[in-house]
Amino acid sequence: MKKFLSYILFAFSIHAFAGIQVNATRVIYNSTSKSASLSISNDSDDTYMVQTWLDTGDASQMPKNLPIVVTPPILKLATKKEAILRFIYSGSGLPQDKESLFWVNVQEIPPTPKQENVLQVAIRTRIKLLYRPDSLKTNLQQQAEALKWQHQGGNLLVTNEGPLHVTLGKLMLKSGGKSWTVNADMVKPHDSLRVSLPQGAQSANNMSFTYINDYGGYTEIKNIAIH
């Protein structure tokens, strides 16, 4: 097995450059809009085929008959050109009392290599699409500030009683003169997330944290009490 891998690495030049760039980290689809859009661009010197689809969280699946579709599902993108993907909701099938999460898949199909013995890697980019009903009458800042934090055993339990997904960044916990920094994940609407804490952080009673805002940047919220 080692000899085979060595031969492959010796015989082939591996190209893993992402020719297609996705020009956002998330798509917010407000229900008051007829559609949402996402810009992609070809920064390479070659023409690429691009395949697009949505999934609901399983990256290995290409589910059909979703209430939101992406168009075009396949396109040719010339060198140094840009294209717009559009997302269209059918008008039924999604709850109106909470946000719905989908994943946008952008799969590049590279051209035939001009040189021999070149192993190309087709890169797929996945970003979140969040369908946000206007009836919720709230925003992400308000929902992040409303998160509830409490110690539970050796973990930190964060509870989201609101209707929006909140993607957390770093948690900065403090106790006396000590501090700890922990990475966290997304907490879904009306759900909780358990975050493992390092040794000693269970004594922390105050914290600050960052979350990813609608523009893909980080917003910090300070001086949060832990119960």
Overall description:
With 227 residues, the protein is mainly beta. The chain folds into two domains: 19-132, Immunoglobulin-like; 140-225, Immunoglobulin-like. It contains two helices and 19 strands. The strands form five sheets. A five-stranded mixed β-sheet has the order 3-11-9-5-7, with no helix packed on it. Strands 14, 15, 16, 18 and 19 form a five-stranded antiparallel β-sheet that branches. Strands 2-4-8-6 form a four-stranded antiparallel β-sheet, with no helix packed on it. It is globular and about 60 Å long. InterPro entries: Ig-like_fold, PapD-like_sf, Periplasmic_pilus_chap, Pili_assmbl_chap_C_dom_sf, Pili_assmbl_chaperone_bac, Pili_assmbl_chaperone_C, Pili_assmbl_chaperone_CS, Pili_assmbl_chaperone_N. Belongs to the periplasmic pilus chaperone family. It comes from Serratia symbiotica. This is Molecular chaperone.
Produce a short descriptive summary.
The chain has helices at residues 2-11, 140-145, and strands spanning 13-15, 20-22, 26-30, 35-42, 48-55, 68-71, 74-77, 82-89, 100-109, 118-120, 124-132, 148-152, 155-160, 166-175, 178-183, 186-187, 191-196, 206-212, 218-225. The protein is mainly beta and 227 residues long.
How would you characterize the largest beta sheet?
5 strands, mixed
Main structural class: mainly beta
* SSE sequence, one letter per element: HEEEEEEEEEEEHEEEEEEEE
Major sheet: arrangement of strands: 3-11-9-5-7
